[in-house]
Amino acid sequence: MRRFALLFLGLLACADVLDLTDRVDAVERLCACTDEVPQFGGECVELLSERIATASDKTRQAWLEYFAEHCGGDGVCLSAYDCYSQPGTCSALGCGDARECCGFEGSGGRSVICNDEGLCQPAQ
Amino acid sequence: MLARAWLCGLVALAIVVAAAPSARAQPATAEAIFQAAKDLADAGKWEDACPKFKASYELDRQLGTLLNLANCYEQINKLAQAWVRWNEAIEWAGRENDKRLGWIKERQSKVVPRLPKLVVNVTRPAPDLSIRHDDTPLPPASYGIPLAVDPGVVVVRVSRGDQVLETREVKAEEGKTAELSLDLTAIAKKHPAPAKPPDKPDPKPDPDKPKQPYDPTQRTAGIIVGAVGLAAVLAAAGLEIGALVKKGQADEPDACVNQICSPKGLEAAEQGKTLAEVGQWLGIAGLGVLAVGVTVFLTAPSEDDTAAWLEPWLAPGLAGASVGGTWW
Predict the structure, then answer these.
(1) B117-190 belongs to which homologous superfamily?
(2) CA of B267: which chain A residue's CA is closest?
(3) Rounded to whole angstroms, how far apart are CA atoms B312 and B289?
């Protein structure tokens, strides 16, 4: 009888059945790695959330897939900067630090700087 | 004749002498009865002596007493009973290596050819009838088999339970076999078993008895409570549909991938989770209230008979109850 009652309640635990529990915010996990990613002060979550929200659907999907594959596990902070520097969270324009800019120490040996006007630009 | 009387006296003396040592060890009552029986036997009053030998033997079982009893039965021509006692004595003496064994066997062998036999043949049996001769029940296995009986008139009774249906008398003579045929089926038909009293019919309702006035209060309360429960269940269903919509949003490929979500995807998932949980508990409560309402309704007094059913059902992720019936 008790088992039946538990089964009954288990079947009714709709949030579990709909697989809506245990989901995590990728940006929050990334911003928890304060030593590995560029310093944004207390505005990391707000800033990166805005960037990912304003990215195109395709860019956001690609970023989530890359994050899930490389930073989804327990060792998220080991590859945190790699995940941050993907299009979607890295900055193509405004910056406070060169490390924010897409392509900073990125592929192809290119590097970028954050100029005096606070914009990312290729290093000379 | 003189020789026979001398032989009897010798036998009686031998039996008394044989029994005497053990009789001394008998309880006082058994010994007193035994002595009384012996005195009667010495006086030739065998009919009176036999019951006393039997009583003494039943009080204190001794081989000497048994031999006296067997001899006593033989003296009063109860040959079947004598034969049974001699047989019992043979077994006893053989078991105890008693030196009188040969003499006991000789006595028993002299009785055997004199024994009257009775064969009861049952042509058609009847399961509820039984047969007794004198006071001895005859099991079906003994039908058709020669049975040792005492000489004289043997009374055979056919009974159903304690009721004797028919009585037959058969004359049993020494050394001869008497036969008796019984058709139990015919006897059973001749004396049919009394029919069982019929079961009492259910008392019919008294049409003159005034009916209780119909009070719809409980029915109304049941309907209201049931309606509240049903409304809660429907609201829960609406919330679950909302949760499904939010799940769809959260499962968009640019919202969540393998439980890793963008802030927007996570927000949809959280909203869906909240809707699902609220809907879940509202649904459970609604089902409970609905069940109470249905119970109150179904147990309410009605003018006519009401037949109804409530059947809960479960499915993965869903639960509910079906209500049906005929009333009004």
Answers:
(1) Carboxypeptidase-like, regulatory domain (2.60.40.1120)
(2) A25
(3) 13
